């Protein structure tokens, strides 16, 4: 079972990363302990304790997940919940950590198996455990058959984030089929006042924030598309009641580390117990496991805070920087990037790209990226995908002259690829029509005139690795924008026996991860971006291999203000690529000033995507200033603590964010006015997260504060007295830096 070793490796990394600069929550000791007398397991990390036990029936039962308890606190032996009616078996009412579908379980199971004799009853009981450095591995076993599930638990010492996954092993003598496999089930304290926050969207409209009350029944968050999807991101946050705010209140939250079809169910049972179960999406899922084989689930990461939705986001951001992203807890700051896509679309040429590169270098860009169009017969999106040779008409001398010029200008060179796809009009498809996902003899549905290569096939996996390895070996490339522009359709795998074909959902993603892992190992200085027609593949699985993500194909600056607030609920601004682009912007036919476009993009990792050939001298002057200002604050923006001072939700006329550096010596305030009305002044903004006693000097990046604003004042002053920003009109923006000596 070689293919699972990469994810096991990631778990090992999660355990071993030390002394990250993002250890800002509570640098306390992690503890995983077992109270043998009461059969209770306890994990402590950050401000969190997580407790579960073995009940009198042998089930692994959820006990507590919330604020950190005192070291001396002990729990009694766990007892199952006795069936309250004949319609609810004890198995159903007892909140289990990982319930098999059997023994009358009516709520969402974590694992469902069909055995060759038709038996589908699975009753998992505790068998043994092994304490690890920062967690515990628990082995469950079916009461009769040798089906073993090892539940892996670990807790992060700083953030209190609990990582859970399951390894399911067939110890019997016959194959069986797994029909549903979760990473974990989590239980919340019994209550009826929970609010669920989640992110939805579609192409060019990702990261929309939604809230709904958790009532009896099940809410499903999912992707059935074979990849993470724009439509639902594998993230949730649950507030204790409607009064939980940005700055206070109990919030439980989580994210899935999986870039294929995933599902999270949030279920309130008939006793008002709330359970969250997540892992592989059981839709169209079947994983046949031969004797001796194992299936490993994705990792489900969850956290808790009493500090409201803002602190929940900050914990996730720090955790991603410290424990998920490449860089072993020290991810590099994102360089300022130029990307050619919106300026040239497919019309890339050596001379055209060099002209843009020269202009980009003049304003301080550090990485020049050539987007789609440089390969095969790629004149538009109808042809060429799959043929990864340099187009001779556009680049008669290969890529070298462009790459050399970009390097000569002092910039890194990056290039776009879409390795998992093929246009039917390509040499690759003509040679290997059987390499795409399809059902034999059935029509193949195209999306953007392309089909999806079946990356689960070893020959496809090797083809992708080889051309990517060649591209990086033969050219001096520092950055790859890795795109993926359509979801699965007709996910057949005709080379496999019919009862093995549905493994494609797991094997495709495992192979993708293994390609990334191997490329990163062989080309350690190359950075990668996860792009999927914008933000269609952002999750804690792909983020183990990619340094940044493309947030959305919608680059309208005001729409980005909305999307960036949604994105940063779940993911760090350090990976959120944000470009300025030409106006009027195609997404909304809206024109806003270049200053506004820059200030919006500076909330994330700054890029420029305008057609620089159309810029006037004053645009270059402004861009130079903005990029220089960004370089001064980007460490704080990308790796600091984000505070949402005023939300853009509900069509609010204004919004504001603040980023504070980890050492609290610098803070950056971004304030946006969407439209002023009835002559109301801009509301006062109160800073957060500053050192109360330190003296901070304010300076504008752009815009003005009220005349009465002091130049220097204490953190307490800025947090309590606040700052009045002077703005009137439509789509205005201001930014200020606060610094201690
Ligand atoms: C979709 C991406 O999101 C865009 O940024 C661009 O790279 C195009 N694909 C290129 O085809």
Write the layout of secondary structure elements.
Elements: H1 5-16, E1 31-35, E2 40-45, E3 48-54, E4 60-67, H2 90-93, E5 111-114, E6 124-132, E7 135-142, E8 147-155, E9 162-170, E10 176-188, E11 195-200, E12 208-213, E13 217-223, E14 235-239, E15 251-257, E16 262-268, E17 274-280, E18 287-289, E19 294-296, E20 299-305, H3 308-324, E21 337-339, H4 341-344, H5 350-362, E22 367-370, H6 400-408, E23 412-417, E24 421-422, H7 427-431, E25 451-452, H8 458-474, E26 479-482, H9 504-522, E27 527-530, E28 548-550, H10 557-570, E29 576-580, H11 594-601, E30 605-608, H12 617-639, E31 641-646, E32 654-660, E33 666-675, E34 695-702, E35 704-705, E36 712-714, H13 715-720, E37 725-726, E38 730-739
Parallel strand pairs: 21-22, 21-30, 22-23, 23-26, 26-27, 27-28, 28-29, 29-30
Antiparallel strand pairs: 1-2, 2-3, 3-4, 5-10, 6-7, 7-8, 8-9, 9-19, 9-20, 10-17, 10-18, 11-12, 11-14, 13-16, 14-15, 15-20, 16-17, 24-25, 31-32, 32-33, 33-38, 34-36, 34-38, 35-37
Helix pairs in contact: 5-6, 8-9, 10-11, 11-12
Bound molecules: (2R,3S,4R,5S)-2-(hydroxymethyl)piperidine-3,4,5-triol (DGJ).
Number of domains: 3
CATH architecture descriptor name of the largest domain: Distorted Sandwich
Spans of at least 5 consecutive residues whose pLDDT stays below 50 are 1-18, 24-28
Helix content: 10-25%
Q: What is the strand content?
A: 25-35%
CATH class of the largest domain: Mainly Beta
Structural class: alpha+beta
Distance between the termini: 56 Å
- Mean pLDDT score, rounded? 95
| Biggest β-sheet description | 10 strands, antiparallel
Number of strands: 38
Gross morphology is globular
Tell me the CATH superfamily of the largest domain.
alpha-galactosidase from lactobacil brevis
The CATH topology annotation of the largest domain reads as: Beta-galactosidase, Chain A, domain 5
Separate helix tally: 13
Question: What radius of gyration results from the CA coordinates?
Answer: 26 Å
Bound molecules: (2R,3S,4R,5S)-2-(hydroxymethyl)piperidine-3,4,5-triol
């Amino acid at each position: 079972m070689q293919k699972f070793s990469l994810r096991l490796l990631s778990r090992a990394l999660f355990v071993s990363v030390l002394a990250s600069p993002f250890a800002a929550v509570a640098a306390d000791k992690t503890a995983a302990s077992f109270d043998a007398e009461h059969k209770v397991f306890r994990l402590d990390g950050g401000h969190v304790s997580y407790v579960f036990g073995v009940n009198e029936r042998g089930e692994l039962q959820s006990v507590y997940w919330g604020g950190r308890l005192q070291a001396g606190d002990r729990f009694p032996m766990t007892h199952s919940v006795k069936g309250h009616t004949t319609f609810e078996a004890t198995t159903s009412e007892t909140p289990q950590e990982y319930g098999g579908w059997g023994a009358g379980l009516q709520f969402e199971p974590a694992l469902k198996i069909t055995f060759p004799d038709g038996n589908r009853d699975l009753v998992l009981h505790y068998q043994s455990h092994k304490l690890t450095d920062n967690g515990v591995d628990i082995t469950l076993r079916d009461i009769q058959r040798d089906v073993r599930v090892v539940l892996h638990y670990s807790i992060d010492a700083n953030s209190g984030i609990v990582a859970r996954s399951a390894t399911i092993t067939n110890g019997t003598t016959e194959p069986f089929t797994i029909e549903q496999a979760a990473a974990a089930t989590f239980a919340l304290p019994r209550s009826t006042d929970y609010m669920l926050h989640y992110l939805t969207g579609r192409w060019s409209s990702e990261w929309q924030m939604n809230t709904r009350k958790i009532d009896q029944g099940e809410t499903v968050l999912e992707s059935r598309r074979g990849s993470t999807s724009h439509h639902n991101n594998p993230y949730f946050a649950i507030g204790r009641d409607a009064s939980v705010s940005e700055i206070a209140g109990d919030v439980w939250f989580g994210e899935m580390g999986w870039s294929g079809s995933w599902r999270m169910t949030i279920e309130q049972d008939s006793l008002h117990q709330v359970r969250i179960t997540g892992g592989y999406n059981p839709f169209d899922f079947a994983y046949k496991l031969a004797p001796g084989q194992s299936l490993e689930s994705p990792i489900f990461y969850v956290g808790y805070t009493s500090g409201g939705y803002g602190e929940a986001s900050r914990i996730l951001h720090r955790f991603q920087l410290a424990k998920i992203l490449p860089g072993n807890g020290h991810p590099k700051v994102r360089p300022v990037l130029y990307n050619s896509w919106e300026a040239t679309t497919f019309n890339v040429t050596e001379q055209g790209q060099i002209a843009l590169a020269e202009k980009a270098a003049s304003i301080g860009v550090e990485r020049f990226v050539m987007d789609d169009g440089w390969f095969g017969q790629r004149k538009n999106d109808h042809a060429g995908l799959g043929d990864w040779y340099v187009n001779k008409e556009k680049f008669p001398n290969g890529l070298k002259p462009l790459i050399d010029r970009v390097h000569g200008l002092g910039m890194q060179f990056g290039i776009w690829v879409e390795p998992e796809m093929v246009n039917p009009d390509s040499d690759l498809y003509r040679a290997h029509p059987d390499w795409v996902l399809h059902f034999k003899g059935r029509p193949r549905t195209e999306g953007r005139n392309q089909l999806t290569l079946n990356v689960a096939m070893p020959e496809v996996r090797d083809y992708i690795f080889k051309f990517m390895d060649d591209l990086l070996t033969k050219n001096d490339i520092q950055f790859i924008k890795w795109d993926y522009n359509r979801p699965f359709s007709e996910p057949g795998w005709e080379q496999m026996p019919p009862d093995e074909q549905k493994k494609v959902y797991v094997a495709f993603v495992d192979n993708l991860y293994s390609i990334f892992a191997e490329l990163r190992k062989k080309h350690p200085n190359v950075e990668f971006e996860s792009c999927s027609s914008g933000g269609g593949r952002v999750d804690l699985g792909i983020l183990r291999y990619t340094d940044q993500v493309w947030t959305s194909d919608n680059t309208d600056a005001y729409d980005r203000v909305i999307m960036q607030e949604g994105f940063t609920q779940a993911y760090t601004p350090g990976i959120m690529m944000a470009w300025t682009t030409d106006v009027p912007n195609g997404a909304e036919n809206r024109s806003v000033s270049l200053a506004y476009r820059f200030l919006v993009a500076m909330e994330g990792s700054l890029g420029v995507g305008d057609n620089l050939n159309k810029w006037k001298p004053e645009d270059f002057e402004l861009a130079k200033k903005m990029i220089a200002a960004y370089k001064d604050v980007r460490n704080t923006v990308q790796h600091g603590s984000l505070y949402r001072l005023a939300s853009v939700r509900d069509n609010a006329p204004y919004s504001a964010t603040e980023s504070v550096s980890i050492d609290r010596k610098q803070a950056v305030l971004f304030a946006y006015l969407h439209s002023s009305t009835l002559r109301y002044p801009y509301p006062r903004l109160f800073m957060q997260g500053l050192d109360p006693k330190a003296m901070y000097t304010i300076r504008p990046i752009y815009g003005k504060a009220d005349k009465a604003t002091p130049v220097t004042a204490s953190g307490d002053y800025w947090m309590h007295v606040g700052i009045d920003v002077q703005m009137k009109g439509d789509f205005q923006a201001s930014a200020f830096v606060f610094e201690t000596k």
